[in-house]
Amino acid sequence: MKAGIDRRFIAAAACALVFCAPVAAADHQVLIEKYTFDPVELRIKTGDTVTWVNEEKRVSHSVYFIAENEESERFFPGERWSRTFDQAGRFEYRCGPHPEMLGVVIVED
Fold it and tell me: Cα Rg for the chain, rounded, in angstroms?
């Protein structure tokens, strides 16, 4: 009988480890092409990283977070810039030199 209890305990412990194990952070990309962010709206989880990739032919861009008044350095065609989001919230942004380019990252727990 004791062996049966041990097996059930081990099975329950294994299930708890599977369901309680931390989820690895994910990486996401936002492409910049033809003066647009693609996707315009991106939903991610806390701890995920977003990388903006400049796919333009000749134009530099930046990522300017409106509410935080923070801007990345400009990055040129073929270059990229990344940010990890450690807090939940709505992060609206635009391109610094091209304010008509708008996007939002929505970070959920």
Answer: 21
Dump pLDDT digits (tens) for 62-106.
Answer: 999 999 999 999 999 999 999 999 999 999 999 999 999 999 999
Q: Which has the closest alpha carbon to 62: 32, 86, 89, 87?
A: 32
CB atoms within 10 A of CB 49: 14
Joined tokens for residue 101: 């380019």
CA distance 26 to 34: 26
State how far Cα 23 lies from the chain centre. Answer: 14
**CB within 8 Å of 108: residues ≥ 6 apart:** 43, 44, 45, 46, 88
φ/ψ (deg, to 5) at 53: -120, 120
Q: Would you give the DSSP letter of residue 86?
A: -
pTM score, whole prediction: 0.79
107, 45 contact by CB (below 8 A): yes
